[in-house]
DNA sequence: ACCCAGGGTCATA
DNA sequence: TATGACCATGGG
């Protein structure tokens, strides 16, 4: 019997590659603890700081902010540009990111903080985030999914690479198109989306995605999607 | 020395 | 709409 799923979702899990890949990754890598942060606001600034940047460099910046007691909206909004830029130096693009953090912190305070924002519908909040300078599709969805617990699937370069290589999506497709494909084929479940994106990143970090013939990649050699059981 | 990382903006055609 | 330049550190 096929499990009960959202009507929008393909009824049979066995024929749904998006489900199969998720189950495969989950069994292979186990439960992921994401997003590593102490509070909502830390998740949100982490999403900005990690833009095109290795997470290890972001961790140093956040640790720096915390040690100086500046890991909150009021502090970020009040700090001088130089001071903030210096503090987040390790995360790269520090001038851009200092500006983006300040703009975000100011907006965040003006809106009344996380509790006020959490009451807004997903699509509305997403639009408002996108209207901010320095927050694009992926950063907005990072915030929505991990800080606000809203079921908005995150599409990053890893997702594009892996799933285009599986022949499921167009690597150069528009963000909303790819996201829609995941939304169409999966239950609208925040936990599922959080785990799935985290698993994709875990997978990408452990396997070489630079070459198309990565023999150690379970999703390209052992995966039951590529080699279906008879 | 080179490549890339849990992207986004802006100018140009 | 679709490329390309730009932002910048740290680890492989």
Describe this structure in words.
This protein has 230 residues and is mainly α. Helix content is 56%, strand content 0%. It contains twelve helices and no strands. Helix 1 crosses helix 12 and helix 2 runs antiparallel to helix 9. The radius of gyration is 19 Å and the shape is globular. The two termini are 19 Å apart. The structure holds a DNA duplex (13 and 12 nucleotides).
Low-confidence stretches: 1-11, 221-230
Average pLDDT, to the nearest integer?
A: 88
Total count of helical runs of at least 4 residues: 12
Structural class: mainly alpha
Strand content: under 5%
Name the features:
disordered N terminus; 230 residues; 0% strand; globular; mainly alpha
Set down the secondary structure blueprint.
Layout: H1 17-29, H2 40-49, H3 55-67, H4 73-78, H5 81-87, H6 94-110, H7 113-118, H8 122-130, H9 137-147, H10 157-165, H11 175-185, H12 190-206
Helix pairs in contact: 1-12, 2-9, 5-6, 8-9
The structure holds a DNA duplex (13 and 12 nucleotides).
């Amino acid at each position: 019997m096929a499990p009960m799923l959202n009507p929008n979702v393909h009824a049979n899990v066995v024929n749904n590659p998006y489900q199969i890949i998720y189950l495969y990754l989950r069994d292979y890598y186990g439960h992921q603890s994401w997003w590593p942060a102490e509070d909502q606001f830390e998740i949100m600034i982490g999403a900005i700081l990690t833009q095109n940047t290795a997470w290890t460099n972001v961790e140093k910046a956040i640790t720096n902010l915390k040690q100086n007691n500046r890991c909150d909206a009021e502090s970020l909004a009040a700090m001088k540009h130089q001071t903030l830029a210096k503090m987040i130096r390790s995360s790269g693009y520090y001038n851009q990111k200092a500006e983006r953090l300040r703009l975000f912190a100011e907006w965040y305070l003006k809106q009344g903080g996380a509790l006020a924002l959490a009451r807004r519908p997903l699509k509305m909040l997403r639009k408002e985030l996108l209207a901010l300078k320095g927050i694009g599709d992926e950063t907005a969805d990072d915030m929505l999914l991990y800080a606000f617990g809203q079921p908005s699937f995150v599409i990053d370069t890893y997702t594009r690479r892996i799933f285009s290589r599986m022949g499921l999506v167009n690597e150069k497709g528009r963000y909303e198109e790819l996201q829609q494909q995941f939304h169409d084929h999966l239950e609208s479940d925040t936990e599922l989306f959080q785990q799935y994106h985290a698993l994709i990143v875990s997978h990408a970090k452990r396997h070489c995605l630079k070459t198309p013939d990565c023999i150690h990649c379970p999703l390209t050699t052992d995966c039951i999607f590529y080699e279906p059981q008879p």
